Amino acid sequence: MVGESRLSKGLVILTFLLPSLIGLILFNIIPIISSAFMSFTDWDMLTNPKFVGFQNYYNVFFNENSIKSIVNTLKYVVGFTPLVICFGLMLAILLNIKITGLDVYRVIFFMPVVISWVVVSLIWIWLYSPDSGIINYLLSLIGINGPAWLQNEHTAMPAVIIASLWKDVGFAAVILLSGLQNIPDEYYESAEIDGANSIKKLFYITLPCLTPILFFLIVTSLITSFQVFDQVFIMTKGGPFGSTRTIVQEIYENAFQMGKVGFACAQAWLLVVIILVVTLVQNILQKRWVHYESK
Amino acid sequence: MVKRIFALILALLMVTALFVGCGSDKNEKATNDSEKVVEENKSDTPDTQPKEKEAEPVTIKFIQNSANGGREDVLKSMIDNFQTKYSNITVDYEIIPWNDYYTKLNTVLSAGAEAPDVFEVGYENFAQYASKGLLKDITDIVASDSEFKTENMKKLAFDAYKFDGKQMGICTDFTGCIMYYNKDLFDSKGLEYPNENWTWEDELEAAKKLTDESKGIWGTVSPLQVYEFYKTIAQNGGSVWGTDGKTVTVNSKECVEALQWMIDKSYKYKVQPPFTSDIYTQPDADWRAFEEGKIAMLRNGTWQFGEFEKNAKCNWDIVLEPGNTQKAHHFFSNGLAMYKNSEKGNAAWTFMKYMAIDPFVVNTRIEENWNIPVLNDDNVMSAYYKKTPPESKKVATDLLDSLVLPPLGPIPEKWAELQQVLGEELEKAKYGKVTAQEALDAAKEKIEKLLQ
Amino acid sequence: MSQNNNKRAKRILLHILLILLSVLFIFPFLWMFMGAFKNDVEVIKMPPTLLPSKFSFDNFRTISKLFPVGRFLLNSVFVAFSSTILQLLFCAMAAYVFAKIKFTGREVLFTLFLITMMVPRQLTMITLYRIFVNLHLQNSYLGLILPSTYNALGIFLMRQHIRTIPDSFAEAATVDGASHFKIFFKLILPLCKPALATVGILGFMESWNSFLWPLIITSSTELATLPLGLSKLQGRWTTAWNLLMAGNVISTIPILMVYLFAQKYFIKSLAHSGIKG
Question: Does A132 touch chain C (CB under 8 A)?
Answer without folding.
Answer: yes
